[in-house]
Amino acid sequence: MAVGVFDSGLGGLTVLDAVSRRLPDVPFVYFGDNARAPYGVRDPDDVYRLTCDATEQMWDAGCDLVILACNTASAAALRRMQESWIPENKRVLGVFVPLIEALTERQWGDNSPPRQVAVQDVALFATPATVRSRAFQRELAFRAIGVDVEAQACGGLVDAIEDGDMILAEALVRSHVDALRRKMPEPEAAILGCTHYPLMQKVFQDALGDNVKVFSQANLVADSLADYLMRHPQMVGTGTESRFLTTGDPDRVSRHATQFLRRQIVFEAAQTRHPDMRK
Protein backbone atom coordinates (compact mmCIF):
# COMPACT_ATOMS: atom_id res chain seq x y z
CA MET A 1 0.00 0.00 0.00
CA ALA A 2 2.75 2.44 -0.97
CA VAL A 3 2.51 6.08 -2.11
CA GLY A 4 5.18 7.63 -4.32
CA VAL A 5 6.96 10.92 -3.60
CA PHE A 6 9.01 12.45 -6.42
CA ASP A 7 11.52 15.28 -6.56
CA SER A 8 14.32 16.30 -8.87
CA GLY A 9 16.70 15.85 -5.95
CA LEU A 10 16.70 16.00 -2.16
CA GLY A 11 14.19 18.79 -1.59
CA GLY A 12 11.23 16.43 -1.59
CA LEU A 13 12.62 14.83 1.56
CA THR A 14 11.04 17.74 3.46
CA VAL A 15 7.66 16.57 2.16
CA LEU A 16 8.49 12.91 2.72
CA ASP A 17 9.41 13.59 6.34
CA ALA A 18 6.11 15.40 6.97
CA VAL A 19 3.87 12.83 5.24
CA SER A 20 5.68 9.95 6.98
CA ARG A 21 5.02 11.50 10.38
CA ARG A 22 1.40 12.25 9.44
CA LEU A 23 0.79 8.75 7.98
CA PRO A 24 3.18 6.41 9.84
CA ASP A 25 1.49 3.22 8.60
CA VAL A 26 1.83 4.06 4.90
CA PRO A 27 5.01 2.95 3.08
CA PHE A 28 6.46 5.64 0.80
CA VAL A 29 8.66 5.18 -2.26
CA TYR A 30 10.87 8.23 -2.74
CA PHE A 31 12.41 8.92 -6.15
CA GLY A 32 15.13 11.58 -6.47
CA ASP A 33 16.40 12.37 -9.97
CA ASN A 34 19.66 13.64 -8.50
CA ALA A 35 21.72 12.88 -11.58
CA ARG A 36 19.65 15.35 -13.59
CA ALA A 37 18.90 17.98 -10.92
CA PRO A 38 18.15 20.81 -10.84
CA TYR A 39 14.96 20.89 -12.93
CA GLY A 40 14.54 24.63 -12.39
CA VAL A 41 16.81 25.53 -15.31
CA ARG A 42 15.26 23.04 -17.78
CA ASP A 43 12.64 23.68 -20.46
CA PRO A 44 9.05 22.40 -19.95
CA ASP A 45 9.32 19.51 -22.43
CA ASP A 46 12.43 18.24 -20.65
CA VAL A 47 10.77 18.48 -17.24
CA TYR A 48 7.69 16.65 -18.57
CA ARG A 49 9.74 13.79 -20.04
CA LEU A 50 11.83 13.28 -16.91
CA THR A 51 8.84 13.52 -14.57
CA CYS A 52 6.92 10.90 -16.58
CA ASP A 53 9.99 8.63 -16.45
CA ALA A 54 10.18 8.83 -12.65
CA THR A 55 6.43 8.43 -12.24
CA GLU A 56 6.44 5.21 -14.28
CA GLN A 57 9.17 3.78 -12.04
CA MET A 58 7.11 4.51 -8.93
CA TRP A 59 4.07 2.87 -10.54
CA ASP A 60 6.27 -0.17 -11.15
CA ALA A 61 7.13 -0.12 -7.41
CA GLY A 62 3.45 -0.41 -6.48
CA CYS A 63 2.47 3.27 -6.11
CA ASP A 64 -0.89 4.04 -7.73
CA LEU A 65 -0.70 7.57 -6.29
CA VAL A 66 2.37 9.77 -6.84
CA ILE A 67 2.98 13.15 -5.22
CA LEU A 68 5.12 15.55 -7.25
CA ALA A 69 7.04 17.06 -4.33
CA CYS A 70 8.74 19.33 -6.85
CA ASN A 71 7.30 22.72 -7.67
CA THR A 72 9.01 22.85 -11.05
CA ALA A 73 7.45 19.53 -12.08
CA SER A 74 4.08 20.60 -10.65
CA ALA A 75 4.26 23.87 -12.59
CA ALA A 76 5.68 22.63 -15.88
CA ALA A 77 4.44 19.04 -16.24
CA LEU A 78 1.46 18.16 -14.04
CA ARG A 79 -1.38 19.65 -16.07
CA ARG A 80 -0.07 18.08 -19.28
CA MET A 81 0.30 14.71 -17.52
CA GLN A 82 -3.24 14.86 -16.13
CA GLU A 83 -4.78 15.85 -19.45
CA SER A 84 -3.19 13.30 -21.75
CA TRP A 85 -0.95 10.74 -20.09
CA ILE A 86 -2.08 9.36 -16.72
CA PRO A 87 -4.20 6.13 -16.86
CA GLU A 88 -7.62 6.13 -15.21
CA ASN A 89 -6.45 3.85 -12.37
CA LYS A 90 -3.51 6.10 -11.39
CA ARG A 91 -3.25 9.56 -9.84
CA VAL A 92 -0.51 12.17 -9.83
CA LEU A 93 -0.92 15.18 -7.54
CA GLY A 94 1.16 18.33 -7.14
CA VAL A 95 2.14 20.58 -4.26
CA PHE A 96 0.49 23.83 -5.35
CA VAL A 97 -3.04 22.95 -4.23
CA PRO A 98 -2.47 22.82 -0.42
CA LEU A 99 -0.46 26.04 -0.61
CA ILE A 100 -3.17 27.91 -2.53
CA GLU A 101 -5.80 26.61 -0.11
CA ALA A 102 -3.81 27.88 2.88
CA LEU A 103 -3.12 31.28 1.35
CA THR A 104 -6.71 31.90 0.22
CA GLU A 105 -8.38 30.09 3.14
CA ARG A 106 -10.74 28.26 0.77
CA GLN A 107 -10.98 24.65 -0.40
CA TRP A 108 -9.85 23.67 -3.90
CA GLY A 109 -13.35 22.51 -4.81
CA ASP A 110 -14.84 25.91 -3.94
CA ASN A 111 -15.77 27.25 -7.40
CA SER A 112 -17.27 30.53 -6.23
CA PRO A 113 -15.92 33.72 -7.84
CA PRO A 114 -12.51 35.05 -6.75
CA ARG A 115 -12.66 37.22 -3.64
CA GLN A 116 -10.50 39.37 -1.41
CA VAL A 117 -8.18 37.52 0.94
CA ALA A 118 -6.33 38.66 4.04
CA VAL A 119 -2.86 38.75 2.48
CA GLN A 120 -2.30 41.29 -0.30
CA ASP A 121 1.48 41.46 -0.87
CA VAL A 122 3.13 38.07 -1.40
CA ALA A 123 6.76 37.26 -2.15
CA LEU A 124 7.32 34.06 -4.14
CA PHE A 125 10.76 32.44 -3.97
CA ALA A 126 11.08 29.70 -6.58
CA THR A 127 13.26 28.17 -9.28
CA PRO A 128 13.63 30.01 -12.60
CA ALA A 129 11.37 27.46 -14.34
CA THR A 130 8.59 27.84 -11.75
CA VAL A 131 8.81 31.62 -11.99
CA ARG A 132 8.64 31.49 -15.82
CA SER A 133 5.61 29.22 -15.74
CA ARG A 134 3.53 31.72 -13.71
CA ALA A 135 1.58 28.64 -12.53
CA PHE A 136 1.28 29.94 -8.98
CA GLN A 137 -0.10 33.30 -10.10
CA ARG A 138 -2.51 31.59 -12.51
CA GLU A 139 -3.96 29.26 -9.87
CA LEU A 140 -4.14 32.05 -7.30
CA ALA A 141 -6.03 34.34 -9.72
CA PHE A 142 -8.82 31.75 -10.02
CA ARG A 143 -9.52 32.11 -6.30
CA ALA A 144 -8.36 35.52 -5.08
CA ILE A 145 -8.38 39.11 -6.25
CA GLY A 146 -6.17 42.04 -5.35
CA VAL A 147 -3.12 39.92 -4.44
CA ASP A 148 0.20 41.33 -5.64
CA VAL A 149 2.71 38.50 -6.19
CA GLU A 150 6.36 39.43 -6.68
CA ALA A 151 8.42 36.45 -7.82
CA GLN A 152 12.14 36.01 -7.21
CA ALA A 153 14.01 33.34 -9.17
CA CYS A 154 16.55 31.84 -6.76
CA GLY A 155 19.30 30.77 -9.12
CA GLY A 156 22.00 28.53 -7.64
CA LEU A 157 20.19 27.76 -4.39
CA VAL A 158 19.10 24.22 -5.26
CA ASP A 159 22.62 23.37 -6.47
CA ALA A 160 24.14 24.61 -3.21
CA ILE A 161 21.68 22.57 -1.12
CA GLU A 162 22.20 19.45 -3.25
CA ASP A 163 25.98 19.86 -2.80
CA GLY A 164 25.57 20.24 0.96
CA ASP A 165 27.18 23.71 0.87
CA MET A 166 25.06 25.40 3.53
CA ILE A 167 27.36 28.42 3.79
CA LEU A 168 26.81 29.23 0.12
CA ALA A 169 23.11 28.40 0.42
CA GLU A 170 22.69 30.88 3.28
CA ALA A 171 24.50 33.60 1.33
CA LEU A 172 22.27 32.96 -1.69
CA VAL A 173 19.09 33.11 0.40
CA ARG A 174 20.06 36.49 1.85
CA SER A 175 21.01 37.79 -1.61
CA HIS A 176 17.69 36.68 -3.13
CA VAL A 177 15.71 38.19 -0.24
CA ASP A 178 17.56 41.48 -0.74
CA ALA A 179 16.71 41.36 -4.46
CA LEU A 180 13.06 40.69 -3.70
CA ARG A 181 12.89 43.57 -1.21
CA ARG A 182 14.12 45.97 -3.87
CA LYS A 183 10.96 45.10 -5.83
CA MET A 184 8.57 44.61 -2.86
CA PRO A 185 9.97 46.33 0.25
CA GLU A 186 7.27 45.12 2.68
CA PRO A 187 5.82 41.71 1.79
CA GLU A 188 3.15 40.42 4.17
CA ALA A 189 3.80 36.78 3.33
CA ALA A 190 6.46 34.73 1.59
CA ILE A 191 6.01 31.47 -0.32
CA LEU A 192 8.92 29.02 -0.36
CA GLY A 193 8.02 27.68 -3.79
CA CYS A 194 10.54 24.86 -3.96
CA THR A 195 10.63 21.87 -1.64
CA HIS A 196 14.38 22.33 -1.19
CA TYR A 197 13.85 25.72 0.40
CA PRO A 198 12.34 24.60 3.75
CA LEU A 199 15.80 23.27 4.54
CA MET A 200 16.72 26.99 4.69
CA GLN A 201 13.46 28.21 6.23
CA LYS A 202 15.10 29.69 9.34
CA VAL A 203 17.45 31.72 7.13
CA PHE A 204 14.56 32.95 4.96
CA GLN A 205 12.61 33.95 8.08
CA ASP A 206 15.60 35.73 9.58
CA ALA A 207 16.30 37.62 6.36
CA LEU A 208 12.63 38.57 5.87
CA GLY A 209 11.91 39.45 9.51
CA ASP A 210 9.45 38.10 12.04
CA ASN A 211 6.58 40.20 10.68
CA VAL A 212 6.51 38.20 7.40
CA LYS A 213 4.52 34.96 7.48
CA VAL A 214 6.52 32.26 5.67
CA PHE A 215 4.51 29.50 3.99
CA SER A 216 6.34 26.22 3.42
CA GLN A 217 4.67 23.24 1.86
CA ALA A 218 5.63 20.09 3.74
CA ASN A 219 3.01 20.07 6.54
CA LEU A 220 0.32 21.47 4.24
CA VAL A 221 0.93 18.64 1.77
CA ALA A 222 0.91 16.06 4.59
CA ASP A 223 -2.51 17.20 5.85
CA SER A 224 -3.87 17.34 2.31
CA LEU A 225 -2.63 13.83 1.51
CA ALA A 226 -4.16 12.41 4.70
CA ASP A 227 -7.50 13.94 3.75
CA TYR A 228 -7.23 12.66 0.16
CA LEU A 229 -6.49 9.08 1.23
CA MET A 230 -9.38 9.16 3.68
CA ARG A 231 -11.66 10.05 0.78
CA HIS A 232 -9.94 7.78 -1.78
CA PRO A 233 -8.55 4.76 0.12
CA GLN A 234 -8.45 2.75 -3.11
CA MET A 235 -5.56 4.94 -4.34
CA VAL A 236 -3.10 3.41 -1.86
CA GLY A 237 -1.08 1.12 -4.11
CA THR A 238 0.10 -2.47 -3.83
CA GLY A 239 3.64 -1.72 -2.65
CA THR A 240 4.42 -2.95 0.85
CA GLU A 241 7.79 -1.42 1.77
CA SER A 242 9.40 2.00 1.87
CA ARG A 243 12.22 2.54 -0.61
CA PHE A 244 14.54 5.34 -1.65
CA LEU A 245 15.51 5.48 -5.34
CA THR A 246 17.97 7.84 -7.01
CA THR A 247 19.46 8.30 -10.46
CA GLY A 248 22.56 9.71 -8.78
CA ASP A 249 25.34 8.07 -6.78
CA PRO A 250 23.44 6.17 -4.05
CA ASP A 251 26.24 6.48 -1.48
CA ARG A 252 26.62 10.23 -1.95
CA VAL A 253 22.87 10.86 -2.01
CA SER A 254 22.41 8.70 1.11
CA ARG A 255 25.01 10.76 3.00
CA HIS A 256 23.33 14.06 2.13
CA ALA A 257 19.84 12.69 2.84
CA THR A 258 20.96 11.39 6.24
CA GLN A 259 22.42 14.81 7.01
CA PHE A 260 19.20 16.60 6.00
CA LEU A 261 16.74 14.34 7.87
CA ARG A 262 19.07 13.49 10.78
CA ARG A 263 18.25 9.78 10.47
CA GLN A 264 19.79 7.00 8.46
CA ILE A 265 18.58 7.01 4.85
CA VAL A 266 19.83 4.44 2.33
CA PHE A 267 19.18 5.02 -1.35
CA GLU A 268 19.34 2.42 -4.09
CA ALA A 269 20.09 3.02 -7.75
CA ALA A 270 17.14 3.70 -10.05
CA GLN A 271 17.17 3.01 -13.75
CA THR A 272 17.61 5.95 -16.10
CA ARG A 273 15.23 5.01 -18.88
CA HIS A 274 15.81 8.04 -21.06
CA PRO A 275 19.13 9.84 -21.68
CA ASP A 276 19.65 13.40 -20.53
CA MET A 277 19.29 15.44 -23.69
CA ARG A 278 21.51 18.21 -22.31
CA LYS A 279 24.57 15.95 -22.18
Notes on the structure:
There is one protein chain. The chain contains twelve helices and twelve strands. The protein is of the alpha/beta class. The strands form three sheets. Strands 4-3-1-2-11-12 form a six-stranded parallel sheet, sandwiched between helices. A four-stranded parallel sheet has the order 8-6-9-10. Strands 5-7 form a two-stranded parallel ribbon. The chain is globular and about 50 Å long. The mean pLDDT is 90.
Tally the helices: 12
Name the structural class: alpha/beta
Helix amount: 40-55%
Number of domains: 2
Regions with little confidence, pLDDT below 50 for 5+ residues: none
Can you identify the CATH class of the largest domain?
Alpha Beta
**How many E strands?**
12
Mean pLDDT: 90
CATH architecture of the largest domain: 3-Layer(aba) Sandwich
Q: What best-fitting shape do the alpha-carbon axes yield?
A: globular
Secondary-structure element order, N to C: EHEHEHHEHEEHHEEHHEHEHEHE
Radius of gyration (CA) equals 18 Å
Major beta sheet summary: 6 strands, parallel
Beta-strand fraction estimate: 15-25%
| CATH level 3 topology of the largest domain | Rossmann fold
- End-to-end distance: 37 Å
- For the biggest β-sheet, the strand order reads 4-3-1-2-11-12
